[in-house]
Amino acid sequence: MFLCVSFSAYAQMEKPRFISSIEDSQWQLTSDSPILCRLEHVIPRFGKAVFTQAAGRKLALELVSTRRFASGLPVDLVSEPAGWQSLQPSQLMASLKTRAGDPVVKVPAAATQLAYADLRSGRQPGFSFSGDDAMLVSLSTVRFQTAEESFSACRARLHPLNFDDIRVSHIHFDANQEFPRLAEEKSAFNRMFAYLKIDDSISEILVTGHSDVMGEACVNERLSEGRAWYVYDLLVARGIDASMLRVDFAGESRPLSKGLKKESLAANRRVSVELRR
194-203: per-residue pLDDT in tens? Predict the structure, then answer.
């Protein structure tokens, strides 16, 4: 919900204002892929505003400056009326603060949605800085609609999962077995395989075998090695380039779950597969 703010449009105009002119205003789609959509708007003499949406994540907005801010400067994200809406009041969307030495002001997800809707409706989101760096940094609506169509199309094509969601996968084994549970072997890496088709930044896949703590450590190390190589063969058979794979084995030294309960032991009898960029 918007809140009417006490400062008037005239008071805002008293601050130095940074905004792209009508002639120069551009919104540019700088990333269009199934893993990242990015829409940038240059603000002369200040920096730029950047909307991004990564696969599996919410829409984000950052104001990026060519300067570095002092700590704790108050910044109000306001909804400003366009010229033809001059009788309408400015409205507060969020109250933010700068971080020491950081050139970026990050906007929370809810306020990002408000700012995006603002631009779509023809209003102008603005960042009103107070204190020693008092200024108003405004996002122009000129040529936004055309670029927004391409940005929306990119967002519709985003993969449902983020790299961080898919980065590590596990497949589990019964006690003293070098072959994984059959049900898991059929489905354990399906999400990873689907993700690999759309992200060409993956440079290495680390396959690491593990065991529980039951039995002798030397036996568990050999067991974890056999498990790792079995999964290596499984991945190659499923079409993964062998040159991307690296095999490691940790025996019982890196448990996911500590203790001797049945659930903990079962969780630790695994092979982890980690995607690396």
Answer: 999 999 999 9
By the 8 A CB rule, do 56 and 161 touch?
Answer: yes
pLDDT < 50: residue spans in the chain = 1, 3-12
Q: How far apart are the C-alpha atoms of 102 and 63, rounded to whole Å?
A: 11
Burial class (CB in 10 A: 0-12, 13-18, 19+), 39: buried
Q: What is the model's pTM? A: 0.88
